[in-house]
Amino acid sequence: xxxxxxxxxxxxxxxxxxxxxxxxxxxxxxxxxxxxxxxxxxxxxxxxxxxxxxxxxxxxxxxxxxxxxxxxxxxxxxxxxxxxxxxxxxxxxxxxxxxxxxxxxxxxxxxxxxxxxxxxxxxxxxxxxxxxxxxxxxxxx
Length: 141
Prior knowledge:
The chain is mostly helical.
């Protein structure tokens, strides 16, 4: 069973959900709060959770950083009537894929073994990170 269908199945079966909200203290950049949810106490290490959120925040910071690469990418897109985007991923898309892969790896290595699954924030429109506490009757995936 793939990761996406597993998350959908858990959502439908009344699993406990926790939402890590966006942190707007630094403006509109994509950044999530690093507060450790009480519901996860005893399930995962607070420091590990903090490091996971910090890495996600760093990836989005890299994605939104302006530089020569973004300028050249935008100019090339303009010159090709944006057809270049049919052939290559943008810098932002590459970073979003990196976040998705990082979350998948963290779930596989750490969180799913503890009965917790972190979902990709893109699934919630970057409004929050959804964390699912897997009910005991579900075997780890």
